[in-house]
Amino acid sequence: MPPKKDKSSAPRLEALCLGVLLWLGAVVQAQPAATPVEPKIATHGYAYIHDEVHEVPWSIHIFKFERSRHDFFFGNTLGSNNFIGMRTVSEQVKSLPADLGIPLAAVNGDFYNNDKYYPGDPRDLQIHEGELISAPNGHACFWVNAAGQPQSTNVTSNFRVVWPNGSTTPMGLNEAREKDAAVLYTAVNGASTRTHGGRELVLEPADNSPLLPLRIGQTLHAKVREVREDGDSPLTKDTAILSLGYKLASRMPQIAPGATLTLVTETVPDLTGVTMAVGGGPTLVRDGKTMEWSGFLMRHPRTAIGWNKEHMFLVEVDGRQSGLSVGMTLPELAAYMQKLGCEQAMNLDGGGSATLWVCGNVMNSPSEGQERPGANTLVVFRRAEQTQARRAP
């Protein structure tokens, strides 16, 4: 299937990318399990490569860029503009503010939880423009540290609320709340918590430190402004809601307005100061070695991110299309990322979500015949000249 043209792409973006795509658009041939042949990377600092292995068959799409180029940086999107939700990669990229920079490439990001009341809830960690959106759930996550270095490993949550009596309760973030659990909701969840019953504490800052936007690795003090017993409390940009399921609430002492709570957004490993992160998993390559899997392994469309000391790679493998590409198992994907030269690599959501967008075009052939909406998108930007000084690492 030929690349789909996004007619809404800005002319400046087309001018920037057109020459590179024409120069690199030829199909690169390779043998099964061989190291993909590639053109010399463009003077632009990035390249798009289409690798085909007819014997399997595989159709693989790669975006590669030089890590030495400090005008390139990673960001991500929320599924629905400034809120958690579901849209396609193209739609999410289209909604990006112009002052962020010029989007060069994007892939679908994390898996998402299938709850009808919380569509687009990322399965794991998401940090967007410094704001903590979703809590980690123990799977592999990708982030960029304060020194600008890419990192990936399994991340676990130690998010918790400390009550006035010193006892603690684990808490989730912007997700479906179980009857015996606590979840903190912020404005990115939408107009309200969308909960049913339970007890909800409307929180505001307890001191001069801001409560929102929520950051990772913080210990925050919040004052209870109001206690509600009906659920579905409204959310504002200035308040957060701590929602307790009815079973948990029945065991808790009554909390009156004016009480002070402590909210802790701690993780293992410690990600304090991280401003961009997205979940996924599993890890494919660690320190140059591929991971191992057992049991029945199936081929599916795949998306992955990988890197070495010189380059970053976004990779999409088409699948479920017998005449074009059958997809890869996780061991096959790990081996391919290793042969690309990746010393580290991580899987992202795949299946019908697998999408690689480059310079205004969807380069791959989605398995459902069109892009499928997803929870978030991992984006490679080029800094616009006017934002160079403000965003320089």
Into which percent range does the helicity of residues fall? 10-25%
Strand order of the largest sheet: 2-3-4-26-25-27-23-24
The quaternary state of the protein chains shown equals single chain
Q: Report the major sheet.
A: 8 strands, mixed
Q: Uncertain regions: pLDDT < 50 for 5+ in a row?
A: 1-16, 18-39, 387-393
* Envelope shape: elongated
- Quickly give the structural class: mainly beta
Report the count of strand segments: 30
Number of helices: 5
Radius of gyration: 22 Å
- Domain count, please report it: 2
- Strand proportion, as a percent range, falls in 35-45%
Q: How much is the average pLDDT? A: 90
Distance between the termini: 39 Å
Structure description:
With 393 residues, the chain is mainly beta. The chain contains 5 helices and 30 strands. It folds into 2 domains: 27-33 and 44-151 and 272-391, no CATH class; 159-265, no CATH class. It has helices spanning 11-24, 89-94, 246-251, 330-340, 388-391, and strands at 4-5, 27-29, 46-53, 58-66, 72-78, 102-108, 112-113, 121-122, 126-128, 131-134, 140-144, 150-154, 156-157, 160-162, 168-173, 182-185, 199-205, 219-228, 240-244, 260-264, 267-268, 277-279, 283-286, 289-290, 302-307, 311-317, 344-348, 356-358, 361-362, 376-382. The strands form 6 sheets. The chain has an 8-stranded mixed β-sheet with strand order 2-3-4-26-25-27-23-24. A 7-stranded mixed beta barrel has the order 14-15-16-19-17-18-20. β7 and β8 (121-122) form a beta hairpin.
